[in-house]
Design brief:
The protein contains 4 helices and 9 strands, in the order βββββαββααβαβ. Strand 1 and strand 2 form a beta hairpin. The chain has a single domain, classed as Transcription Regulator spoIIAA (2-Layer Sandwich). The N and C termini lie far apart (about 30 Å). The model has no long low-confidence stretch (mean pLDDT about 80). The protein is of the alpha/beta class. The strands form 2 sheets. The protein has a 7-stranded mixed beta sheet with strand order 1-2-3-4-6-8-9. The longest helix has 14 residues.
Length: about 120
Amino acid sequence: MYIGLMKIIETSNSILTKDTKNIVSLKFPNKTTHSLETMNEHLEAVTLLDYNNIGVLILIYMTNLVSVSKEARTLVSNNEMTKTHKVVAILVSNPLTRLIASFFRHEQTEVPNKIIYK
């Protein structure tokens, strides 16, 4: 779906948007967890938004993410993530989401990232 020049992709637990400056925003509208299935959906959506195959700048709003499965964490640490994510900023709002975000920061060493505490 397009709204103006913005592209929107909805997965089972998130909404991804890409604006005119090629920045992808990932939001979890409801309290949710990330499983291997939802992480694969996320990767597929980001790949669709990365039509140049150069990676995307992504802002992840983790405020409603309450846990990530072991299988999903393993997927994050492999090369598939580094192919699609050029730079990652993770917005957190409480100690739990900060803990989850810190895992992504340590596992994704090849992708520059920053945790922003709101």
